[in-house]
Design goal:
9 strands; about 30% helix; alpha+beta
Length: about 200
Amino acid sequence: MPKQEEWSSEEDARAYREIRALVDKWKRLGYKTYPDGTEWIGHTPHRAPQAYLHQLYAPLGAIGIGQMESEISRRLPDNFRCFLMLHNGIGLFANYISVYGLRRSWSRTNLVEAGQQPFSILEPNVQRRPGNAPDDVLFIGSLGDNDDLIGMNPDGGIFRWESDDPLSGSTKSYSSVFTFLLEEANEAAALFDPDGRERD
């Protein structure tokens, strides 16, 4: 975990502690840790034999963050850099909430290696970027059953992308990636029963 002086704000540090407490409650269903530090938490075999509710990918580190910035041709906001030092992407509640990361391998044969890889941040920002997206918006993840894109402004503020009116004042916003994750994870938790099954 970053040292106190490395957090972009005390609010982000507090939000991350609360996110971890919420996610770690699901360890009672089972969990596993990969050699690189990637964690899968909340075994849900009713979805698939090796399915887990939450995936927290290993830290990216300074070199990986530099590689990501080079590949997307922009400097990342401080709160997102701090997040990547903790997790190179995250998937919560069966990827209902996703934050993308730097994917280093596209192997389809090595399932262990594939399990340690987040959704790629390059896809929505380089390969399939929305044509009407402002140049300064970075797409960092997705939310909901429809996988709506989550955008980040240069100041680190987060918003739900609405392609018809992406800068609408009615668009829900968050001060950072950490406050986004905490608020949405608290709401998503109500959608699942204690065994990790989606409620009807």
